[in-house]
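Help wanted!
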Amino acid sequence: MRRRRSQIDSLHDDPDQVRTGAMPKTILVLGATSAIAQAWMRLLAPSGASFFLVARNPAHLEAVIQDLATRGAAAVYAETADLDETEGHSVLLERAVAALGSLDCALIAHGVLGDQAAGEQDFSVAAASLQTNFLSAVSLVTWLANYFAAQYRGTLVVLSSVAGDRGRKSNYIYGSAKAGLNAFLAGVRNRVDREGVQVLTVRPGFVSTPMTAHVPQGPLFATPDAVAHDILKAMEHRRDVLYTPWFWRWIMTIIRAIPEWKFKKMDL
Amino acid sequence: MPSQSKQPVFESWGRYPKLDCRVEPLFWMDDYPRGTQLPPTVLAVGMGRSYGDVGLLEGGTMLSTQGLDRLLHFEPATGLLRCESGVTLDQILKFSVPRGWFLPVSPGTKYVSVGGAIANDVHGKNHHVAGSFGNHVPRFELVRSDGTRMVCSAEENAEMYRATIGGMGLTGLITWAEVRLRAIASRKIRYTGIKFHGIDEFLSISSSSRSECTMAWVDCISRGRNFARGIYMQGDHSEVTEPKKPSARPHLSVPFDFPSWALNRTSMRLFNEMYYRKQLRRQVTGLIDYEPFFYPLDSIQHWNRIYGKRGFLQFQCVIPWRYGRDGILAILQDIADSGLASFLSVLKVMGEIPSLGMMSFPQPGITLALDLAIQPAVTFPLFERLAEMTRELGGRLYPAKDACMTGHQFRSFYPQWGEFAAYRDPAFMSAFWERVTADA
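Answered by r_m:
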């Protein structure tokens, strides 16, 4: 018998999940020490979710594990890994699924802003940014999309950026990695949506995080907590692309609408 | 008054003095000290709710601990919480109240960090039965500028433990701390409000009160018949078990600086009159939520903007019992004559439980706290007089709220300052400490 139905339908079989607002219970987070990932996990921990965390820095990972466990997570598994090394991805993801027993949701949150000026001169710097922000995410999404498609359910949340909407001279290396990621995710979504899998592309604007700590913070900056709330809401409504905070959808609509002959003269 | 050409990036809650402070955020407990790129002087800052300059540093780097906001461990059997130092009391309450636990001691705002609460050894409405915040912090970690990380408690590094509680952030960076919470059955407070006229009535109500939390609002503006009238507020955590939901977010905010003429003698008199008359009967009792009882001003974000760009001074003294009644009376008289006092002036009896900190403010006696709008020609001389009276009466002022006391006054309020100075980390400095030790 083929089990093929949307996640929403299957939730009604499980009264417990309906009561907790259809929140995922087994969650994999790649780049778990990212500020947005931490804020998002904090919202999910009190409902008794189990987590598998992956990050590079063991001391930072330990602090995140303790935080989630204290806030009510049912279980927190973790592994340190450098996600740039794509060869290790499949065994890592298999271990995560084995530890959690199942997988409802995965968040891909790792990324680096990179050194734009250095990358303009040195291809290896640009390549490293593409490796982290694009290729490693492609590798993870490939495995996870297939895993979720095979079980006809699952939520795949990927942190992209408004920087991917148009190449600008101030950060086009990072931006092009995110643009590639956006296109890749759109294609994957087109393939697996019919298998009951949600692929959510998150495009935050400026967020106050360690990534932006050196940038002067203006009124457009959002907190990781606000972004995390938006992501949860978008998951509940099975949205495809989320601009967060909301006004970035309109800012980027305008920026994309500027004709190229004009755009190339602008300082953005 | 010279106009402020440059908007400072970081202001203390009183918005005076205006100093050029550079802030660097910390996100992890191992972020400091990091390499050698940091300038030599630093000061940790949490929520910036100190009023004057105890939480400011010019020409160095202030290390913002707001990113150190993780809870590290909680023992549901004993209520012992371990958390990073940037966790705010608000974040603790959101976590602990639904689980049946409350802060052991809370100041008048919940928007302060645990690190700040330790560094200023804050006190609250239950000082007479619970002591100050440090009495409920059995352990914390202190990181020194040379990279030494030391766990401090009454047993380990006991001297550094005593120096750091109430140590104004000068002994190093607190990275995590343990706080012993107290069990509650409900969010509700059994509240009683009693109107009083004059200091004697206040003292007699105080001495007969058996409540865990007590304080009094006092009208510091009316003279004559209404001099030193007020409302004595007492409350106890309700013992009737009920579901404990977390609090909602505040939705009122002061969106801009009020013009300086908005606060004047008439508007202040009106406010105080209304506040006194809001309670109709001499005594009211009821069950109220803990939020309006503990944090009446937290429901209005940025309330400090009411004082305009110039900011305000906060005056808080404690006068020991020996001169308590007459001393407070004299101070209140001077303040009422000046007409400068504003909204919420607070009187409280402080208890006998000794603070653990070497430099802690609380001591047995009567404490008075109030805001003074800044009118340069009047406010500073008044403050100077009040500080001098406090000194003569054997009392002391509270560094966390101060922007004006002189070095001489500070050193007579806290004669142990020299002993404390030995524990200061050579790289940690504040505008306050520079100010009060410059002429030593």
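OP: Thanks! One thing I noticed: Chain B has twelve helices and 20 strands.
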